[in-house]
Write a structure and sequence with these properties.
single chain; seven-stranded mixed sheet
Length: 128
């Protein structure tokens, strides 16, 4: 089990920044690849970014590449998503998720079905 709790969402103007955090309880956080997903009203949940359990490799959706940065602090059991140059189309509920299996040999995919643990989500609204 990897219980996850997101925080840091809110209302921001276009062009602004936010940093999301995802706190994991338990001692096994550092063994799991982690990801961020988002879901806008009426749309499918979509992949945003992923990071290896070692922190050494990352992957991003094309829509956020160059604007968002995923990182992790295994000593603090915390995952982050730094979001810059935010656009109205970034408005969504953002979820962090942990890989279904620990110590994966390659970076977890963008498929939500490869993730076994999910947070409750945090709302991000980009509007003037």
């Amino acid at each position: 089990q990897v219980p996850l709790v997101e925080s840091g969402g809110g209302l921001v103007q276009p062009g602004g920044s936010l940093r999301l955090s995802c706190a994991a309880s338990g001692r096994t956080f550092s063994n799991y690849d982690m990801g961020w997903f988002r879901q806008a009203p009426g749309k499918e949940r979509e992949f945003v970014a992923a990071i290896r359990w070692t922190g050494g490799r990352t992957n991003y959706a094309d829509s956020v590449k160059g604007r968002f940065t995923i990182s992790r602090d295994n000593a603090k059991n915390t995952l982050y998503l730094q979001m810059n140059s935010l656009k109205p189309e970034d408005t969504a509920v953002y979820y962090c998720a942990a890989d279904r299996v620990p110590l994966r040999a390659v970076l977890v995919t963008a498929n939500p079905q490869d993730y076994g643990y999910w947070g409750q989500g945090t709302q991000v609204t980009v509007s003037s």
